[in-house]
Amino acid sequence: KVVFLNGRFINEDEAMISPFDRGFTFGEGIYEVCISVDGKIVDLEDHLARLDHSLEAAGINPPPERSMLSGLMHDILARNSIENGFVYIQVTPGKTPRNFVALPAERSTLLISTGPAQLEGSKAFKNGMRVQVLPDIRWKRRDIKTTMLMPQVMAKRAALNAGFDDVIFYDDLGITEGSSSNVFMVTADGALVTRPVSHQILSGCTRNTLIELAILNGMTVIERPISHDDLSNAKEIFLTSSTYLVVPVVELEFGEKAITYSCNETKKLQGIYIKYLH
Ligand code: PLP
Could you say which EC number(s) this protein's record lists (predicted)? Predict the structure, then answer.
């Protein structure tokens, strides 16, 4: 497998990063995950705009290849003979002495890699997921797509160990988002509800596209937090992300409560989204 690291396409076994990289010492880093469908990168400009937002908000210098990223992403797919799969981009500030505020003298570290993805072929896409609702223990700048992912890893591991497929987080206002996805509810009268974009959630590219598609298809979309009571009254719940696409939640556990959902509307939205992808 070929990766792109700091200006060069190299075999993944030869890719090396300094132990003094601030991504390693301080967990300072941001990332993007896009998908390629039939060789075309989905919502590419939105992902690059979010990458710029994350870099700016985190105070990380853009990598010198910033203006070439789109070309490099297509190159990494071609060099690995992948038409349908993911492209991963990670940027860290590069290396400095282990000092909290030291500014790197050299370039930001840039890694681009790729691999296959199941997308609409996944079991979750077809059959839905069982999710556990857990408190959101993350920091308060969730609009930055940071590689500092310990809370998500810990929560998702706990959920998997308890027999679930994924996690939905909540804070004082209600549901925030999934461990790596945005959350939508279909109300009894068929409207879509999802949390408005703020510092509390990631502005999901799939979320944003799905909202546009739903409106184009005559649906009502309401951006407001989903409360705990809403979960009991909802007709359907689903998750969106670049790699999940649109995944139905068929069962949800919240404390002592277990709620099951149908997925007719979600299946319709899956159809609309798949048409958009191809
Ligand atoms: N929310 C979080 C916390 C995520 O990590 C992700 C994606 O990984 C998303 C939402 C969905 O974002 P997107 O649709 O841009 O993949």
Answer: 2.6.1.42
Identify whether 123 is a catalytic site residue: no
Percent of the chain with pLDDT over 70: 100
- pTM for the whole thing? 0.98
The residue range of the domain holding 135 is 123-277
Do 101 and 145 belong together in one domain?
Answer: no
Boundary-marking domain end, from 71, 98, 116? 116
Q: Tens digits of per-residue pLDDT, 207-248?
A: 999 999 999 999 999 999 999 999 999 999 999 999 999 999
Co-location of 112 and 128 in the same domain: no
- Is there a single domain that holds both residue 265 and residue 144? yes
Taking CA atoms only, the protein residue closest to ligand 1 atom 10 is 181
Structure tokens at 179: 């461990």
Catalytic residue chosen out of the listed positions 1, 95, 126, 145:
145
Which residues lie below 8 Å from residue 110, measured CB to CB, with a gap of 6+? 4, 5, 6, 7, 63, 65, 89, 90, 91
Is residue 179 within 8 Å of 191, Cβ to Cβ? no
What is the per-residue pLDDT across 34-80, written as a single tens digit (0 to 9) for each?
999 999 999 999 999 999 999 999 999 999 999 999 999 999 999 99
C-alpha of residue 204 to centroid of ligand 1, in Å: 5
* Contacts (Cβ under 8 Å, ≥6 apart) of 158: 132, 134, 167
Nearest alpha carbon, ligand 1 atom 4: 180
The residues lining ligand 1, judged by C-beta closer than 6 Å to any ligand atom, are 33, 177, 180-182, 202, 204-207, 240-242
Q: How far is the CA of 242 from the centre of ligand 1 (A)?
A: 7
Instruction: Quote ipTM for the complex.
Output: 0.99
Domain of 29, CATH number, reads 3.30.470.10
